[in-house]
Amino acid sequence: MTQITFHKTAMGEYQGFTCNGHAGFAEYGEDIVCASISVLVINTINSLEKITKEPMDVEADEEAGIIRCRFFEQPLKETSRVLVDSLRLGLAQIQKQYGTKYCKLTFEEV
């Protein structure tokens, strides 16, 4: 299962997100759930970096299936917040379609 945790402040501002694990829907190279999650997460990070120039730190371990993104400034730029909201929406749709056995979203107050 891939667990995606969105880290937010008590005021509801995004501090970052962590994507952990492989979906396990199918064999490596054929796992459409894992591929979908990866595309959404990586595209969001690339967009935050290239389009909005949001200051952030990204760590990744492909073998372990971990991507951590931490934002340096609060609140996020409006365009950055929209991108992260879009990520959350896309991941929620994957969770809804394939179930929490493969993709689970959680929210953590930090």
Give a verbal description of the structure:
The structure is a single chain. The chain is an alpha+beta fold and 110 residues long. 36% of the residues lie in helices and 30% in strands. Strands 3-4-2-1-5 form a 5-stranded mixed beta sheet, with helices on one face. A hairpin with a 5-residue loop joins β1 and β2. The mean pLDDT is 96.
Question: What is the compact description of this entry?
Answer:
This protein is α+β, with helices and mostly antiparallel strands and 110 residues long. Helix content is 36%, strand content 30%. Strand 1 and strand 2 form a beta hairpin.
User: What share of residues are in beta strands?
Assistant: 25-35%
Tell me the major beta sheet.
Answer: 5 strands, mixed
| Straight-line distance between termini | 23 Å
- What is the number of helices? 2
Estimate the global geometry from the Cα principal axes: globular
The helix/strand class is: alpha+beta
Instruction: Report the mean per-residue pLDDT as an integer.
Output: 96
Low-confidence parts, pLDDT < 50 over ≥5 residues?
Answer: none
Q: Strands across the major sheet, in which order?
A: 3-4-2-1-5
- SSE pattern: EEHEEHE
How many beta-strand segments? 5
Radius of gyration: 13 Å
Helix content: 25-40%
**Multimeric state:** single chain
